[in-house]
Every structure is written in structure tokens, then in C-alpha cells.
Batch of 3 targets.
Target 1
Amino acid sequence: MPVAKISPSMLSSDFSQLAVEAKRMYKNGADWLHLDVMDGHFVPNLTWGAPIISAIRPHTEAYFDCHMMVSNPAQWVDDIAKAGGQMYTFHIEATQDPLGLIKQIHEAGMKAGVAIKPNTPIDAVVGEVAEKCDMILVMTVEPGFGGQKFMAQCMPKVEALRNKYPNKDIEVDGGLSLETIDASAEAGANVIVAGTGIFKAEDPAAVIQTFKDKVNKAQKDKFKTI
């Protein structure tokens, strides 16, 4: 049964204190840290790349969940691996050779995630792509900006993927908070990305623990019916 993994999005951190923020999230119970790499082309925003990830790496033991919102994801595999990335999640919309890219990521020593935008059907990943990757990310906002409203209409995709791949890590990213965690957990997501919902909370540790508890309970309930 996939266990809960809570991955605070560093996009919502204080950029002037990235090492401090990474330590703070790990201390508060985060399993992963979600690092959004945006190239200003696949999405209109621009964030950080391998040099920044490499600079944060010595300051935390958290698992680095790298979400590559880039037009040429094959270009950055080796750089992110050398920087300390551990999950390399590319967008299915950004490649013509997802199986080759998954192989490249694995050969670089990382796990491979595949992301789909809110309007991309699960048919884009169901089959060999889903079977060979390590995680599927269902975006619950349009990629590129933090602070957007959670898109509940994406939950049927999460549920369909969970039913097809009961042992796969399934991640949701966008608008996750105490108000939206139940829908995501009950649909079957076990990897939860949250930005402002965690970073701006009065008690981030309590939010992270609540997310874990809700996800783990929902997974147990779902596995009774799968």
C-alpha cells in the first residue's frame, strides 16, 4: 500500500532563506521537498535550476522531488542528478519519447515521474509509460504559478489511476490545503504537494501530520475495496 509522502513546495518559501526553509520543513515532518524547475518557455514563469538545487542539498536530508516544467526535459537530467535530485518528474506534454526519457532518468540514478496537466487525459500515460515510471503527477492547477485554486474536476483522473495502479505513487500538486486534502486523499493520491497551505500555516507540523493521517486512512480504506 502506498504510504503518505508530504512534499512542501519550495515555490512558497522565502527565496532569500532557502536552506533555512528546507531545514524548517524537514523538522516539521516533511518527507520530500518539491522543487519546481520552470524554464520560462514550457510555462511563463522562471524559477531555479541545478545550481540552486545543489546549493540546498547539503542542508537537508529531505528527498528532492524535482518537478521539471521545462520544454526539453531530456536536456537537464544529468545536471539535476548531479545536483542531488532524486525524483525527476517531466511533463508528458513536453516529450515525444517518454519511454526513452524514463530510461535516461533511471540510468542517471533517479526515479522517474510523469506529470499531466489538468486538461490532459490519463490515456496519455496509461500503459507502458505508467508501468515503467515510478510516479504519476496529476496537476490540480495549471502549471507555472503558485497560489492557484484547487481544481476538483481533476479528482476522477486520480481515482482512475489509483484503480489501475494500486501500488504506484500518485502525486497531486496545486491548491492543496486543509480544505482540499480530503478530496485528494479519498481519490487515491498519496504524495501531496502543498505550498502556501504549509508554508503560511501557523503550525506547519500539524498541517503535515493531518495530511499524512488523512492520506494513510484513505489508502487503507481504498485498499479494502481494490
Note: The chain has a mean pLDDT of 95.
Target 2
Amino acid sequence: MRSYTIGRAARLLGVSPDTVRRWADAERLPTHRDEAGRRLIDGRDLAAFSVTLAAEAQSSDPDTQPYTTARNAFPGIITAVKLGDVAAQVEVQAGPHRLVSLLTREAVEELGLAVGMEAVARVKSTNVHIDRA
């Protein structure tokens, strides 16, 4: 499983590295240290936290809607992968945005998509494409 540095997690969550450090210090976001002593966040933990954070933001101000345009690229983290016999559903949390892409099971397996991985959801009209980051 991939782990993320404080800085990379901050970029994916759309906040400052200091904010992520405060969350980690308050034990809202679990971290561990690598051999160099850097604090890292497990991909699954970051995925779960990003969903919680987005829900908290929406519940605190439900009238707040993000401003976007077509063909936007949303770098984020995969929070769910649901595989069927032929089709699959991949959810990406990109800051306050939750994007869902329906694609083939074969595409998910070829890309090796899994919860906790970094990905970019690209939106064009009503289509959501997933790029492995």
C-alpha cells in the first residue's frame, strides 16, 4: 500500500501541510515514520479521512458548492473500488469533490486501481475518466 508524505497529503486534501500536521498531532489522521524519520500517512487512512473531511465540510455549510467547469482535472485519492463481473465503479475524493467513474473491470485491473492510490479524475460533460497518477 502506498503511503503519502504530509505535503503530498495536503495537496490531495486541498489544505496546507501545517493543517495536515495539526490533524496528525491531534490524532485525527494516523501517521507512521519511515526509515528517514518522515511522517507518512497510509493510503487507506488518507482515503477514509478525505471522505470524512468532505462530509464534515458539506454538513457545516450545505449551501457551499464548488465552482467548476467542464474538462476539469481533479487530483485525489481513490476511496472505493467496486468490481462486478464486467463493470466496475471507482470513487475518487478530490478535496470536497466526490467523483464516481463507471468503467470496465478489465480497465480497473489493468491500471491496478485500489483504495488509497493517488488518481486524477477528469470530467468532460457527463463522463468521468480516471488516470492513475
Note: The radius of gyration is 15 Å.
Target 3
Amino acid sequence: MRYIKAFFNRVFITALLILIQAGWFVLFFMKLTAYSHWTGAFFSLLSLIIAVRIIGKDENSDYKISWIVLITILPLFGGLLYLCFGNKKPSKKMRKKLDKTHNEYLSQYVQDEKIMNGIKRDNLRIGEISGYLQKFSGFPVYSGTKTKYYPIGEEMFEDMLAELERAEHFIFLEYFIIDDGLMWGKTLDILKRKAAQGVDVRLMYDDFGSLFLLPKDFAEQMESLGIKCMAFNPLVPFISAVMNNRDHRKILVIDGHTGFTGGINLADEYINRIHPHGHWKDTGIMLKGEAVWSFTLMFLEMWTSFRHEDICFDDYKPFRWRKERFKDDGFVQPFSDTPLDDENVGENVYIEMLNQAEDYVYIFTPYLIPDNEMKTAMRLAAKRGVDVRIVTPKIADKKMVHRLTRSYYRPLLKAGVRIYEYTPGFIHAKSCVCDDTAGVVGTINMDFRSLYLHFECAAFFYKSSAVMQLKEDSLDTIARSEEVSEDICSKGFFSTLLDSLLRLIAPLF
């Protein structure tokens, strides 16, 4: 019975259909190219034209090189593979929906020029980062927002439950992964109760991120409980590049004035209830105040792109359900990164922090797969005398990706970057702190998928309480980690060759 059930499982059927399509594609193409010399010559010429076109595109150089090498190795197949999978942007249908909604929401992102001028007067270089975010991604910088940093998932979850209990008007949740267990169970208990009380509860999750974890009728189950629910970019049993673009964001908004983000999904490993990879180290941040408006808009923009609703924006603003003034706690700027445009916002914020640092930059990332621009920024900052430290996991969640991460150590170490591996287990945090003044906490991994393919979010903050909280946690985490030396990077010929090949195709992972 168990095997029959597994055979009809959605994941199994989808994988089987994709494999059949891939096999048919290969056989058809082999027959086609064997039909005549002219057919093979045509596809070789097509690959050459596509390679030239790739060279001329304004794209990341690492990505272009990977595809050009693949086309060189497979002159017949390479061009067609690029046409099928080389486009980093979402499908036309998805872009059309998201672009239309984004244009409708642009007027809601209003920058208070006094606040922007204030951060620039206080620190011009940091103000330039805020100016970049506002100009090229549209997200304002705010004052009147209190921050609280969380060094571990358990602490953030405790406050999430407390704030959910206080909800009176609406709750918005957007997560990459939801998994049945203690964390989701406790959250769902509150959501059901709040929905029954008339609170507007909306839940959005990524279909691929939760593919192996949730039943196929999960959305219908939630709707039956009064919880509006939507799966982002549902997996379909067809070979398509559109499956590359995932909603990797983690957003919780309560009554418009309280918001959470960070690396923490709704699954038990994130609160160390279970230990699949040792101790799970993650980070998050809570905002209370005006800056939560940007997270509210991020959620609503994604939601109404696929479930059209007439929105009265005034019903969701921070002061709608709380009249008293919010406390000032430095400057806070939530932002989102999207594959819809040609602006690598998340990467550029990291690069700017490295370029402008004078004393130190501490970075947490589960995957260290930087492109040439990021590597250059790290190495140059270290060569300038900046104390650049990066913490990655000691225990891998994906062995091949962990090997790829370690393959980038040597050139960074040679430049003076200090790298540590978190020995108690897996570090899933995506955070950066700089010079006791500025920090970032969010969902952005330092790999190609996060930086170029996924929908991501984060909070950039300056002179907020969270800055020194993040620094203290960084030093504590580094003290519990093992520093990497160049000696352990020494490998034999074949291992070095394998690492080189992995790095060559890293942008395609």
C-alpha cells in the first residue's frame, strides 16, 4: 500500500514526466542530427550564433562564460539548451502579471526627503547606499522604527508567537518552506483562532520549497480554515526555465506595524527542534514602526499579482491600527530583490558595504559561491586593511554545494579574508555587519540563485539597536567556529580539477 501511494505521489509523477520529456528530447535530437550533415551543421551554426549573442549581452560574466563553455563542449546541444534554460528572467506570463502590479504599487513607496537627507548628513557613504536602494529598487529609508535582532531561530519564534497572539486586524505570512511539526503546528493553531475571530489571515508559500513537505491539497485545507492561501509558481510536469524563479522571501507582517524577516522558515530545524545537520544557526530581525509598510507592500504586491483584489492601502498602513508615535531607532530600509529587472540589488548592497568599510565587515552565509564582482570586492577590502570575516557551515546540508563553497576559500584567504566554519552544525543565516554602524539581515544567500534568480528580501539598517546586537552575535559565532587556513585547501590534482569544473558551472546550479 505504501509503495502504491508513493507511485501516485505528486513529486514522483512530476519527476517521472520530466525525465520522459528529457529522454524524448535527447532521442529526438540525436535522430534529427543524424538525419543529414546539413542538420548537424545547422545546429552547430545556431550554437555559434547564440554564443556570440551571449558575449554581447549585458549579463554577469561568470554566467556567460559557463554557457559559452557548455556550448563549446556540446556544439550541437548547447545552443538549444541555452534557449530552453538560459533565460534568468521569469516567463512572459509571470513578468506581465508582476510588472503590471508593480507599476500600480509604485506610488505607495514614498520617500520622506527629510529622512533621506538626514542619513546622508550623518554619513554620506552610508546615505549613498540608501540612495541607491531608493532610486533603483524604489524602497524608501525610514526612521520611527524600532529594531530587534535575533541570533537564533528559537528566540525569534517565541516573539513571533507573542506578536501573532496580539493580532487584531490582519496577518500576512510569506515563506519559502513550511513543514509540519511543532513550529508550524503552534503557528497554525493561532492562525486558525485568529481567522475564526475575523482577522484577515493570508499565507503564501513557495510550491517548490515545500514540495516534499506539504500535501497537494494544502492550500484547500487552509482555505477551509478561513486562511487565504496561495502557492507561488506551482511546479508543473514540464521542462521549463520558469521553475528557476522561486519566492525565497520570509515575511511576517502583523497589523501593519510589526514585521519579521530573516533566514528562518516555518520548519522545526530552524528552531532546533530537530537536528538534521547539527545545531542550526540562523538569524532574524523584528521591526516595529513605519518601515514595516515596505514589507506590507511587498507581500500585497506579490499576492495581488496572482489573486486580484481591490486594495484600500490605508487599511494596512502602520498608523491605521496604532495611533501613538513609533520610537526612533536609527534608520531602517527594507528592500526586495527580483529577477524581473537587471539590477542585482542584494549583491550590490553587499559590495557597497565592502567597498565603503573602514574597519571590519562580518558576513554569515550558508553558501559562499560569489561571482567575480563579489570576490573582487571581498579581496580588495581585505587588501585595504579591512577585517573581512566570513562564517560558513562546517556541516553541509548539500555536499556538492558545500564542496563548491570550499573551492572559493583559497583566493579569498590569499587576499587576507578570514574564513570560519561553524563547527556546531549548519549556519543558515544571511547577515552582514559593518563598522559598528550598518547591517543587513534577510534571505539573500551568497550564491547565484539568490543573487540572480530568486525573489528575495532583507532589511538594511544604520545606527539601529540591531547593529551592535548583530556585531556581538558575529563575534560570539566566530569564537565558536573553526578558522580555515590555506593548508587545508591543499588538494591533489584530480580534486583540484573537480573543484575547477564545479566553479565553472557554479552559475548554472
Note: The domain at 144-330 is CATH 3.30.870.10 (Endonuclease; Chain A).
